TrEMBL record:
<protein>
    <recommendedName>
        <fullName>Dynamin family protein</fullName>
    </recommendedName>
</protein>
<keyword id="KW-0175">Coiled coil</keyword>
<keyword id="KW-0614">Plasmid</keyword>
<dbReference type="InterPro" id="IPR027417">
    <property type="entry name" value="P-loop_NTPase"/>
</dbReference>
<feature type="coiled-coil region">
    <location>
        <begin position="21"/>
        <end position="48"/>
    </location>
</feature>
Amino acid sequence: MDVTTRIANIIEKRKPLAQRIEGVEGNLKTLSATLQRLEERRNYLSNQIGDANVIGKLKEVDFSHIQLAIASELEALTRLKNRFSRDTLNIGVIGRARQGKSRLLQSLTGLSAAEIPDGDRQHCTGVRSTIHHNPNVDTYGEVWFHTERSFLDEVITPYYEKLHLGAKPLTVDEFVNKPLPQLPQNIPGYAEPGAMYEHLKRYHSQFGQYRHLLTEPSPKIIKKHQIREYTAQDTTDGQRILFNYLAVKEVKITCTFPNENVGKIALVDMPGLGDTGLGDENRLIQALGKDIDFVLFVRMPKSSGDYWADVDVKLYDAARSALVELPINLWSFLVLNQTSPNSNNGDNIKNCHDLSETIKEKYILVEKCLITNCADKEAANKLLDEILDYLTNSIDELDRKYSKACQQRLVEIHESVNAVLSKAKTILPQDSEDDYLETEEIFGELFGNNDSGWWRDITLSLQELRTELWYQRQIPDEELHEGVIAAIENCEQDKGIISCENALEKINTRIMMSSAFRAYPDYQDELRVLISHKFLSLDESLIRKVELVKNKVVEIFKSKGKLTNLSFAEGSDFFTEIIHLIPEKAFKLKSGFQVLANFQLSYRGLILPRIRHHLDGLTNISPIAGQYGQMLEPVDKTLAVSKETTAEDILTALEIDYEKAINTIQPALEELLCEPAEAVYAMVEEFIDNVILQKDIQKEWKSFLRKNRGKIWSDVFGQKEQDRQMREEWVQAVNQVTMVNKQEYFYFVL
């Protein structure tokens, strides 16, 4: 099997692991949230309970260390998921400036200094570049820019914090328009802070050169010849006149490698320590942990003599800290860059061997230390072949070890949670059997039966109200009657077109614009609507009637039923709130309360149909055959419109139609004055039938009252019920953690 196929198989095998890791991530986040809720409940109980022994036990339920472990593990899982989700195997090439990284990358990718910056003066690489092999495309680049926010947060703010420059700028305008704060004189160190400050000054002084890129959409597709101006600090001839890189987060380059059989790999060109200023080490660590499968350290010994310096050890340690789950020697090679006698560095082969032999003295542990001429394409590709051979033979085992290390920590989190839960479950003990029986006996006596207690009081009071409403159901409603008289008087005062001083002129204009055939029925429609709306005010009277009776029922439940503490609402709102408190299993009781909560009387439901019957004289419907062929009764027309019909004729007819409607509506409505009382009586009787007289309804009442007895009989059960409720809420919070802490939710390695 060739390298390309082997790499493709490795990538494909990783994908299911990434999916399973995503599931574990989701459960860890849920676990963290439920632990937070349990901790909040613990803090609440600590302030409510007076028992010092219980408070001491509550303090032992401490998840702070577990929460820290979860946060750390979520970061580790994200790195692992990213590793297994990638479509390439990524090889990171890192090293200090002027060590040959760029020359090696050029040799491996076939790109030139125009795309991969190098030089023989100062360091020139400005941003991280990822180079992908694709044998089917011409070379191009993709550029991701900082936003103004990420530029401030990730690039500028660290300088202000590290160099103690005071308040950080909140906007890019504030950063560029204000002078930089002076570097404090008492800051620890001298050269390093000064160098950092000079680099910050470069961001500040050249801001106008790259500011426009902070608002550019990402990624931006660029051509091959444009790549250097977004990745380098200087031109190919060494002029430091490029500034775009200051706004760039990352560049991806796609090209065809000289060795086309490398498969799906990517080379990541990392600016080394000291290359671009503050934050390099952190960015290096983040990139290695997130995006790199394998590290290639590049070091070029000087021909005049060299040694392993502190900066080399620092670079190695930075890479090592990026992935603590795996010993770095398992996923890294060291390349000592051999230079020829005619190079600027001269022949350094002897010093290459010296550094190779002393590498272990500095505890720089790698899988292999190789001496390779990075500028020699043939030698560089032999190096790549060796790396790929190692990866294809070892990556499965590396992935397994990496996964196993993460998996073990997840199991430890699961076990730690269980250990704390075992303490939490015993903190608030259940009532003893004797306490339970005593409480139930007291509750039973308070609830009572048909002869005594709560049940007798509530039943008797509701029946008394029912009797009262029965006697009142034939009494006309005075408020409704007054509303009818007021509406009739309003109809007499405002008759629409009939009341207008220039009624004949308006009607005549309508006839001229349309015709008498249209004018008369149109005015009939307008008067019909006018009359109907005059009676809308009756709606308020009907609503008050219903709410008044509902409040009488509420008063019974609050005074006799002691439900005041369950709801402070009145009328319909009281019954709605009680419905939400009734358990679903008490469906008869719940539906009974819904009868009262939902009942309403309205003008449109009770009165409007009666009014409409007396408005037929103001309709323009002509007698025709009915739906099933029968003839409808002809409407008694006041005016038979013809071509000779005048405005006076129409006005006279409208006056007759209007008076006829008003004169018939009033007696019809007076016949309805008892119906609201009949309706509310029926409402209350239906309610009583449902909540008092149904079979087994007492059981449902007991279930509801038992749950709320601490609020209903607070003088008897108050403290006990408060303790019980706190215990139930605590147990519920503990159980929620238990549900998400199941062992199978922590495994992604099958």
